[in-house]
């Protein structure tokens, strides 16, 4: 009798875990001095993971360790990258369909020091933000109105941006989507063999 009760509790816990909604919060801040990404994962409003990454240090390390580019094999590398991106696109569409954007705020301040070029650059930033937001709204479920701002400073020369985004997903749906992607990739590999 006790084993049945333990088994039933175990099944209920697994069902609750698969049905639970997981919230991932991304905070990204870029200024001239710092380049920081902060990621927080919460389940049932309890924060279970928090990581802050100083990307300026990571970027400096990768630039210092970078090898000289080999232009002879550039075309082959480019073809390989495009093939990988093509195969990842289907997988990303499967998984992204189950994600919900709960909050998206993206604030940008900056200037080029010249009023005319600052105006042109501000328009370009608006265009890039609009394209990225449109792609996100097409691929994911947008549950909020994005807060996008561009604040031009016509006499100053600087750039800074801050992105706050909360994405949520159900664990069971995401596992199901990943299994579908893996199954589809296995079928493709068998077809090529």
UniProtKB/TrEMBL annotation:
InterPro entries: DUF2953 (IPR021338). It comes from the Bacteria. This is DUF2953 domain-containing protein.
